[in-house]
Amino acid sequence: MVVARSTDNAAVVALIAQIIAKFKRLDAVVLNAGVGVIGDVATGALADWQTQFNVGVFSAVSALHAAIPHLRSSPNGGRIIFVSSGLSTSPLPSGAAYAAAKAAVNSIARSLKIEEPSITTMSVHVSSFGCRGRASAHLSTFSARHR
To answer: pTM of this prediction?
Structure first.
């Protein structure tokens, strides 16, 4: 097993390189890093917002920079799966940083649809709020090949 902190760009690049060295290709990436920062917009610490975006958004961009060249050449067409949240469109009080980071991830997924039409990009919105102990999921597929 290889472990890499998602916010360590060099470690993420090394991880992708190790995968390519061992398996000779990369077919899919699942981006699921996140933290739950709690705080009001007016009074929440800027450092908390930075942590939220470093973990939830910028780590995904780092992984994508390393992975996309390999996903383009995947024999089955590359796949990118973003784990998002229903809170990206329906935030809760004191959850703006988390909601904004997830909304940013969704926007990146939509942009990849345009920029990388040979790669299937999905954003899975997972939520356990209001489900009485069971999680629900909504899948959005952004792909020129799968419209």
So the answer is: 0.82
